[in-house]
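Notes on consecutive records. When two proteins share a document, each keeps its own sequence and its own token line. Never mix them. Below: protein one.
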Amino acid sequence: MNSGTLIASLIFAVVLVVLIGFLIQLMMRGWRRRAQRQAAVIGTLPPVPDTVGPPTVAATRGLYVGCTLVPSWNDRVAVGDLGYRTKAVLTRYPEGIMVQRSAGRPIWIPDDSVIAVRTERGIVGKAVPMRNHEGGVLVIRWRLPSGTELDTGFRADNRNEYDRWLQGEQ
């Protein structure tokens, strides 16, 4: 390789690294602006209660996929840590639903805020193939104290457990 080719390759590499860094910065800025726009709409989340009754639906392990603003299943909530995927455990109590996330604060969904529990093919960019006409993602639609409706997506490790959630029985 002659020196002219080496210099051109190095210049190309530097330009490419700068371009990639610039694009990453733009994506991060867009995520922060989305969070600022949504902060007023989302408001504060319901507080986690100190005590709850016995579970009505036993703990289900899986992946917390994220929250979206209703009606757009692809409009991910960027406020706080609601937009980040993480391992989670989903449990239903008489007072509401607890989403205990491994890399985030727990989410409490009061029972009177729950509008519907259903299965879907996908949510916030997470598409899961359907088997036997069953959805791959459990979606909980609920209303925040601010009046905004959210869809919270959860993909169970064992999709056979969705029946318990859809029936509301143990």
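Protein two starts on the next line and is unrelated to protein one.
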Amino acid sequence: MVDPHSKQSKTEGYRSRAAYKLLEIDTKFKIFGKKTKNIVDLGFAPGAWTQVALNKSKARGVEPNILGVDLINCSPPEGSSFIQGDIFSKKTHEEISAHFQGPIQLVLSDMMANTSGIGDNDHYASMELCDGVLLLALKMLQKNGSLVMKFYTGKEDQLLQKRLEKVFHKVHKMKPAACRAESREMYFVCLKKRKDNVAIEEVFDGEEGRV
């Protein structure tokens, strides 16, 4: 049976079915505002989220500056840019900063580590990626900026949520309808960063040991 979202993505010109997850998130939380210009898309390939960001921005009369980042080399949609890099790399952070030359209003992350089929291992790998995304957001996301981040559910969901709540005024957890029912992926939608410079120690210190 053909997945309806995969079929729809081909009809509507999106590079993957993942587009419909972000479309649903924006419908509910309005993450693309008139002041949302600088956007970084982590785990970019094949580029469907950047396509959504481009369309949503233009519909709101915004000319966006969107940068995709991925370990896999991938051609960006027209109107966006791309760098191949690792978000845990200082060099990649420097390249992102150099591209924008100013604050970022929105961080998107649809990253997921290659799954092993072992639930706990996949969860911890996802948590490590999420920590990397959060560190980048701490450094580069402006006050009142937003973050959308995929994660693989497991024992440390609440620990991650507590970290996010130290940084953002509102943190929502959701599973878009476009996610496959059997998948353990979900999303944190984090709105209104509390301040420009949040110390890493404020977010990661004082936690109980990892499970």
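For the record: Residues 104 and 141 are 5 Å apart (CA to CA).
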